[in-house]
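I'm curious: can you give me some protein's one-letter sequence along with its backbone structure tokens because I've never seen that pairing?
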Amino acid sequence: MNNQPATRDTAKAVARFDITQRLVAKLHNEEAVIGGIGHTNFDLWAAGRRPQNFYMLGSMGLAIPIALGVAIAQPQRKVIALEGDGSLLMMLGCLATVGARQPKNLIMVIMDNGAYEITGGQTTASAQGTDLAAVARATGIASAHWAADEAHFETLIDEALATPGPHLIAARLTSAKPAGQTERDPAQIRDRFMRGLGTKK
């Protein structure tokens, strides 16, 4: 890796499941993780179930808004949103809200494969020039970076876990299929998450 910041064009394409496993392996303080719909969600499930994980089902673009709510409600807890590029594009205004609120405990990881993979592989705007890290910086999220490769992704996660945010980390993905599929039981997902956050006994 050279000294120039990575961009979507220069970043190495990485496997979603691999970097999700790398992320989960670093979670030792009951950090909350919100997985957006689709393959991002599936690989979070496959990487290891935790009571602090929430798996969004059926609605695009809600990982960051939900994570923001949790971050505001529990400011002592690190909160991580895992979101796909298509879902973020559906709810792009959430970045402006994060930029305005500046939650110090929020980390957003954008899994960018340039496609609406789960609905047929249609091309997203990120594959046509929209730089989601640059958009985040324009909304006031100063710590918004592309991961140059797997090792850089781990470095960015370490920094985000250790320093005040908000942080956004974007990763360009390979076309690898997910390693599993989330069990579709909304009531159980909600109940487990509430217990994991200590809001329900």
Q: What stands out?
A: Residues 150-162 form the longest helix (13 residues). The domain at 16-196 is CATH 3.40.50.970 (Rossmann fold). Residues 26 and 158 are 8 Å apart (CA to CA). The chain has one domain: 16-196.
